[in-house]
UniProtKB/TrEMBL annotation:
It comes from Halomonas cupida. This is UPF0102 protein HCU01_05300. CDD domains: PoNe_Nuclease (cd20736). InterPro entries: Restrct_endonuc-II-like (IPR011335), tRNA_endonuc-like_dom_sf (IPR011856), UPF0102_YraN-like (IPR003509). GO terms for molecular function: endonuclease activity; nucleic acid binding. Keywords: Endonuclease, Hydrolase, Nuclease. The keyword Oxidoreductase does not apply. Belongs to the UPF0102 family. The keyword Hydrolase applies. NCBIfam families: PRK12497.1-3, YraN family protein.
């Protein structure tokens, strides 16, 4: 059973991801899916920009006192994202150009700042 703090954290995370997706849509991307769970991994946002499928990792920090939200993506997290994206492509029978973006979000709703790092993760 989840404790109230964990429930609040999940709710806040869902709000931030929704705001992030809405912000990226205003920047011209098209939403494909949110919170995709596949084989031990999760894709926060799957979007399209032209012919390119964009896997977006959303990272949030209330403030940057202890570093930016983008700095929280470890090499292990990057490998997990790439593996999960490969499963996603295979499961959906897709063969298209892809990239991995990071959207670092700082602040608390409704006062959020966005730092969009396109092609932030290299997939070999």
């Amino acid at each position: 059973m989840l404790n109230p703090k964990a429930i609040l954290s999940r709710h806040r995370g869902a709000l931030i991801e929704r705001a992030a997706g809405d912000w990226l849509c205003r920047q011209g991307l098209i939403m494909v899916e949110r919170n995709v769970q596949i084989r031990g991994g999760e894709l926060d946002l799957v979007m399209r920009e032209g012919d390119t499928l964009v896997f977006v990792e959303v990272r949030h920090r209330s403030d940057s006192r202890f570093g930016s939200a983008a700095e929280t993506i470890t090499a292990t997290k990057q490998r997990r994202l790439i593996k999960t994206a490969r499963f996603y492509l295979h499961r959906n029978g897709l063969s298209c150009p892809c990239r991995f973006d990071v959207l670092a979000v700082t602040g608390n709703p409704p006062d959020l700042e966005y730092q969009w790092l396109k092609n932030a993760i290299e997939a070999n």
